[in-house]
Design brief:
Layout (H helix, E strand, L loop, with lengths): L2 H10 L27 E5 L1 H6 L1 H9 L10 H12 L8 E6 L10 E6 L4 H12 L4 E5 L2 E6 L4 E7 L2 E6 H12 L8 H8 L5 E6 L2 H9 L16 E11 L2 E10 L2 H21 L3 H8 L2 E5 L2 E9 H11 L1
Antiparallel strand pairs: 1-2, 1-8, 2-3, 3-7, 4-5, 5-6, 6-7, 8-9, 9-10, 10-12, 11-12
Helix pairs in contact: 4-5
Length: about 325
């Protein structure tokens, strides 16, 4: 197993919790610890996700390949067995990254909130993952680094665990100590406007992605222009759940109100086109639930779907 990918993937999913005592307290929240310069921020409320019986049942009913955990409980047990990390009882985690270097995993960090036992946490990972950390001091904190993959773990307080690439972890510590500024600007504004969601993500669209959109001339051979989307500077995604209904919301900011309106018109037109071409009434009903609105330079796409409809939709596509 590639430990770097396994650890970062696990922490991006934020499934971590083991008791801890002994570090200093931090007065900053997880989002306030994200360093300036991050162009992707995401968070997940793990306690709500893992404790939700509907989500557990949905996983249990989903079709799975041979060798994959067949139940939610088996999936949790496999995580503990392979990584030494127990996903139970965790509160939330915030993930940040520099998406320009995402493929190389050069700058990605996780700020996890819970209650941790430093020695037990490190010992469990070393034993289960079969690796050895090197412990060094960074300012007044101890850094546990797996040098082969250049991944570090640190404990900022008895309730805050840091993980990620070495520079990212050090940057979080610097923010906590007042030696580095925390993230500000449009990406933070977008993250905050998504509210109290189970899962949310905000990212600044790289210039190369904007240029790629202008080069697109259609979608699946259909005459749909992507040119209005070239003015996107930041976008956000949120997933929430109310009783048995999932709500998906995408908030996208444009450099001008005209671009936002043109993009909304494009999406509305595409939805109408697909409804006219599709012959499955259940898919048409789902498309009719998509709401596209514009407020100043923001375009919002919202979509509600019942958990029961997700199963029906999967069967339809199969």
């Amino acid at each position: 197993m590639n430990f770097k990918k396994a650890l970062l993937g696990l922490l991006v999913a934020a499934m971590i919790l083991i008791p801890f005592t002994g570090c200093q307290e931090t007065t900053l929240t997880a989002i306030e610890l994200v360093p300036q310069g991050a162009n992707l921020i995401a968070s997940i409320q793990l306690d709500k996700v893992l404790d939700d019986q509907d989500i557990r049942d949905t996983y249990n009913r989903a079709e799975k390949e041979a060798g994959q955990p067949q139940t939610f409980e088996e999936a949790m047990e496999e995580i503990i067995k392979e990584t030494g990390v127990d996903p139970a009882g965790f509160a939330q985690a915030v993930v940040f990254a520099d998406i320009a270097n995402m493929e190389q995993n050069e700058y990605i960090g996780v700020i996890a909130e819970g209650t941790f036992d430093e020695e037990q946490f490190i010992d469990n990972i070393e034993e289960k993952a079969g690796i050895k950390f090197t412990a060094t001091d960074y300012k007044e904190y101890q850094l546990y680094t797996y040098e082969k993959e250049e991944v570090s773990i640190a404990f900022l307080s008895e309730k805050t665990l840091l993980a990620g690439t070495v520079k990212a972890v050090k940057d979080i510590i610097d923010v906590n100590n007042g030696d580095r500024k925390s993230v500000t600007g449009p990406i933070l504004d977008t993250y905050n406007r998504l509210g109290d969601a189970l899962v949310k993500l905000a990212l600044e669209l790289p210039e190369e992605a904007q240029e790629a959109l202008t080069e697109e001339s259609g979608l699946g051979g259909m005459p749909i222009s992507f040119e209005p989307f070239a003015d996107i500077d930041v976008t956000g995604f949120a997933l929430n759940k109310v009783q048995e209904t999932l709500r998906i919301q995408i908030d996208t900011h444009f450099l001008s109100t005209d671009s936002a309106q043109n993009a909304a018109d494009t999406i509305t037109g595409a939805i109408s086109l697909f409804k006219g071409l599709l012959d499955k009434p259940e898919i048409k009903e789902l498309l009719e639930k998509i709401e596209v609105t514009v407020a100043e330079s923001w375009m919002t796409i919202a979509f509600d779907i019942d958990l029961s409809e997700i199963g029906d939709m999967i069967e339809t596509f199969q």
